[in-house]
Amino acid sequence: MFKTIHVDEKLFYTEVRRRYYLLPGKAVPHRHVRSKRYITKVMMLAAVARPRWDPETGTYFDGKLSISPFVERKPAVPSSQRRPAETTVTTKGHVNK
User: Fold this and answer.
1) In a 3-state reduction of DSSP, which class is residue 68?
2) Per residue of the chain (97 residues), what is the pLDDT tens digit?
3) How far apart are CA 27 and CA 32, in angstroms?
């Protein structure tokens, strides 16, 4: 029972407008979306296990192992107004069966 890991994928929509609670002196994060009408979806892969007490280390394991997005980082081919060519661009990745 303690050696079971659950793996699940989930789609999230990127939000155009978002409220942030910022500490004094922190900058507001910059978000860039291509269109408000067609919102980009990002697929995330999560791996979780059962939360439990670890007597060897004396700590509590919360069960979270990994949460990672399916994205690809590749160099941009053409240059644009916002970035020069060969800049690393993050795009959504494709998951094939």
Assistant:
1) strand
2) 778 999 998 888 877 777 778 899 998 877 777 777 877 788 889 999 999 998 898 999 898 899 998 888 888 888 888 788 888 888 877 777 6
3) 16
**DSSP 8-state secondary structure symbol assigned to residue 36:** S
Six token digits for residue 47: 């791996």
- Token pair belonging to 18: 């978002």
> Whole-angstrom Cα distance, residue 88 to residue 9?
25
Q: Considering Cα of 22, then 27, then 28, then 33, what sign does the dihedral take? A: negative
Look at residue 85 and tell me if it is in a domain. no
The domain in which residue 38 lies consists of 5-70
